[in-house]
């Protein structure tokens, strides 16, 4: 059996991609660090002369309320159940599992003051795919993702609901099946569970992994559409992009030409001298979006390799510091930027669809052999236009918003959770748009026969046609559009 060994070291998006399908185990280094950190915290508590936020005080604006030692466990229990106030839609299971992994990894760094028993319990949940039911609304992205992380933590207490063995059930039932008993949280542990950016970070990881795939597909669909539209190759020559000094622009241009290498359609004589911007400016637009995908990747990889709870227990310095590493501003601004970058990939894709169905450049209106009796791709373009419009609305930045909370103690919040969930919606919409462009591009290419596109594109079309046919007469278009999107998600784009 394959295991991923948890260590107190930096991780990457690649780690997230790999670890979701395998089980976890603690390295000896991580185990020693967690135990040592907890022992130090307990020694501080035992001195009984220290007031430490969230350990022997209330929370938020109740930070000056001192809690007696015999009530510390109850304090942590109450924290979790009172903060489980999530509303909205259920968080997708793959994001819940990522949250669970990121919360464990945060504790593995050995600055959270939690017990080894708590970490091992979380690992048991992860390894057995016991996924807490979490709701997507309720976090302000400031004092950590409090509400969603409270829902993540409920199964530890035997409370709330989980998805287990393909069934939604009470947490207590799942624990009983596995022979696990609920834990009684110790001092600081409830706060360690709830403080942190794991909700928005998990969404960000999911979005970025899909964005990298979608970006390659956007270049693929653009190359197909360019050939289908009888486009020109001049705008993709390296010299034009080398003089602008935008490196990702050059990468896109080279990729488009590589994907179209040997195309009879591309290399034949053209009567037109320029293409519309949605074709001619693909390197500039796609390249700009890729800039931000890479930029946000760096921010997110830094975040998931960080300690983001509070207070932070520094045993070597003999200090426990109450700070603000749970504040989601770095992620909020990054995800707002990423949302715009992804929306633009969808926007220019929809414009290419519009041109393909417009009845120009020798293509029939709406890409149907018999327009009039058939509507072809007419409303497929409407659907993508609606998605583009929705994405524009979702691009309104959430990170510039703030609402005073906790009686003014938490007086500036990031709204990073909202940036994460709306960016997630944009990502979903982008995949729908690209799936439709793929379908429209291959439909249009049929009208270029007997001329052929590149060998790469022709081979991809052959694979595509095994699942999605040429649309001769009107069919249930949504079915074919869904199949085209599935093809895009399940297959490797041209590189």
Describe the structure.
This protein is mainly α and 495 residues long. It folds into two domains: 3-196, Fumarase C, Chain B, domain 1; 203-490, Up-down Bundle (Fumarase C, Chain A, domain 2), CATH 1.20.200.10. The protein is 54% helix and 6% strand. It has 19 helices and nine strands. The protein has helices at residues 13-19, 28-46, 72-83, 93-108, 116-127, 146-153, 171-178, 189-194, 198-228, 238-242, 247-259, 264-267, 277-280, 282-304, 329-356, 378-394, 416-445, 455-465, 477-490, and strands at 3-6, 23-26, 87-90, 131-132, 135-137, 161-164, 167-170, 312-314, 319-321. It has a three-stranded antiparallel sheet. A hairpin with a 4-residue loop joins strand 8 and strand 9. Helix 9 (198-228) crosses helix 11 and helix 11 (247-259) packs across helix 14. The radius of gyration is 26 Å and the shape is elongated. The two termini are 33 Å apart. The model has no long low-confidence stretch (mean pLDDT 95).
What is the strand and helix layout of this fold?
Elements: E1 3-6, H1 13-19, E2 23-26, H2 28-46, H3 72-83, E3 87-90, H4 93-108, H5 116-127, E4 131-132, E5 135-137, H6 146-153, E6 161-164, E7 167-170, H7 171-178, H8 189-194, H9 198-228, H10 238-242, H11 247-259, H12 264-267, H13 277-280, H14 282-304, E8 312-314, E9 319-321, H15 329-356, H16 378-394, H17 416-445, H18 455-465, H19 477-490
Parallel strand pairs: 1-2
Antiparallel strand pairs: 3-5, 4-6, 6-7, 8-9
């Amino acid at each position: 059996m394959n295991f991923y060994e948890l260590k107190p070291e930096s991780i990457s998006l690649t780690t997230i991609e790999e670890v979701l399908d395998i089980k976890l185990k603690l390295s000896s280094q991580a185990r020693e660090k967690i135990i040592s950190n907890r022992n130090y915290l307990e020694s501080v508590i035992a001195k009984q002369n220290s007031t430490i936020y969230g350990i022997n005080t209330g929370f938020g604006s109740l930070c000056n309320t001192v809690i007696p030692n015999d009530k510390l466990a109850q304090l942590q229990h109450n924290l979790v159940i009172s903060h489980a106030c999530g509303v909205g839609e259920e968080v997708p299971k793959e994001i819940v599992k990522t949250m669970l992994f990121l919360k464990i990894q945060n504790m593995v760094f050995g600055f959270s003051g939690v017990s080894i028993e708590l970490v091992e319990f979380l690992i048991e949940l992860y390894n057995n795919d016991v996924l807490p039911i979490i709701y997507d609304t309720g976090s302000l992205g400031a004092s950590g993702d409090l509400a969603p992380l409270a829902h993540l933590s409920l199964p530890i207490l035997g409370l709330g609901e989980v998805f287990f063995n393909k069934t939604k059930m009470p947490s207590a039932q799942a624990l009983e099946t596995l022979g696990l008993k609920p834990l009684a949280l110790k001092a600081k542990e409830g706060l360690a569970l709830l403080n942190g950016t794991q909700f928005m970070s998990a969404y960000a990881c999911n979005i970025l992994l899909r964005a990298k795939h979608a970006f390659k597909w956007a270049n693929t669909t653009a190359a197909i559409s360019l050939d289908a539209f009888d486009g020109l190759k001049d705008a993709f020559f390296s010299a034009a992009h080398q003089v602008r000094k935008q490196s990702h622009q050059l990468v896109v241009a080279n990729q488009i030409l590589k994907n179209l290498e040997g195309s009879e359609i591309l290399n034949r004589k053209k009567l037109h001298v320029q293409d519309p911007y949605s074709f001619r400016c693909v390197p500039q637009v796609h390249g700009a979006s890729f800039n931000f995908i890479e930029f946000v990747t760096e921010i997110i990889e830094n975040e998931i390799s960080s300690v983001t709870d509070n207070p932070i227990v520094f045993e070597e310095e003999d200090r426990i510091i109450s700070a603000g590493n749970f504040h989601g501003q770095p992620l909020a601004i990054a995800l707002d930027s990423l949302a715009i970058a992804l929306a633009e990939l969808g926007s220019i894709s929809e414009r290419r669809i519009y041109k393909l169905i417009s009845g120009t450049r020798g293509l029939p209106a709406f890409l149907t052999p018999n327009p009039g009796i058939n509507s072809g791709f007419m409303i497929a373009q409407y659907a993508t236009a609606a998605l583009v419009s929705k994405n524009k609305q979702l691009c309104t930045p959430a990170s510039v918003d703030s609402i005073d909370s906790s009686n003014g103690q938490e007086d500036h919040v990031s709204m990073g959770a909202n940036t994460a969930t709306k960016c997630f919606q944009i990502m979903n919409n982008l995949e729908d748009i690209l799936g439709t462009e793929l379908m429209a591009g291959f439909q249009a290419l049929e009208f270029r026969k007997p001329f052929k596109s590149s060998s790469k594109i022709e081979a991809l079309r052959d694979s595509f046609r095994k699942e999605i046919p040429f649309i001769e007469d009107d069919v249930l278009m949504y079915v074919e559009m869904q199949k085209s999107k599935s093809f895009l998600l399940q297959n490797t784009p041209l590189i």
